[in-house]
Amino acid sequence: TSPFAWLRTRFYYLLIRLYFDQEFSIEEFTRGAKQAFSVVSKLLSQRKLDLLDELVSAEVLQVLKEKLSLLPESHRDALAADIDAIMYTTEGDVRIYYDDDGRKFVSILMRFWYLNGANLPDEVPGETKVFQIVFGDESTKEKRHLLTANYEFQREFTEGAKPDWTITRIEHPRLLE
User: Fold this and answer.
1) Which domains are seen in the chain, by residue range?
2) Which residues are paired to 56 by β-bridges?
3) Which pLDDT tens digit goes with each residue over 2-39?
4) How many CB atoms lie within 10 A of CB 75?
5) Cα–Cα distance, 177 to 46 (Å, whole number)
6) GO molecular function terms here (predicted)?
């Protein structure tokens, strides 16, 4: 990320701690986001959308139902990310905003890079090549794809609101489009 974006996100984390949650820690949030990403991606892969009600917004679930019904099995398999297969995680955009009723919200976009052994084609039509990593020698090669996903987490900080983060955007480029 650029130095400006890094400073901007750190400034937002400071605002979150000062005005919304004095115990907020980006390290703790990132650990929780990784766990949520792993659980949600596996449930998506298995098409168990009914188990996502408390984790994912209703609007996102509706879109996912439509997209998953059209997805080939290999692409569905590639959605699943084991927590140990997450290679890199970074924060994207951080937003603090108020709606027309005066409710306070914070949203944090997280980007994940993970290894997956799904049987994907070498080239995904209309896109760039999917990165592949081969483990082992020639007789026991295991091919893995380095895939990316973007999940946006949102929490309402209005007094009396539940202190839960909800996923309000799910993107798996080249897989879930």
Assistant:
1) 3-171 (3.10.450)
2) 167
3) 889 889 999 999 999 999 999 999 999 999 999 999 99
4) 21
5) 17
6) ribosome binding
Q: Which residues contact 162 (CB under 8 A, 6 or more apart)?
A: 156
Strand partners, 96: 106
d(CA 129, CA 126): 10
Token duo for residue 97: 């905003």
Question: 113-132 burial, b if ≥16 CB within 10 A, otherwise e?
Answer: bbbbbbebeeebeeeeebee
pLDDT at 71 over 60: yes
First-last CA distance in the chain: 25
Q: Which of 93, 56, 113, 158 is nearest to 65 (CA)?
A: 56
Q: Look-up: residue for tokens 């390290």?
A: 27
Nearest to 135 by CA among 112, 117, 114, 149: 117
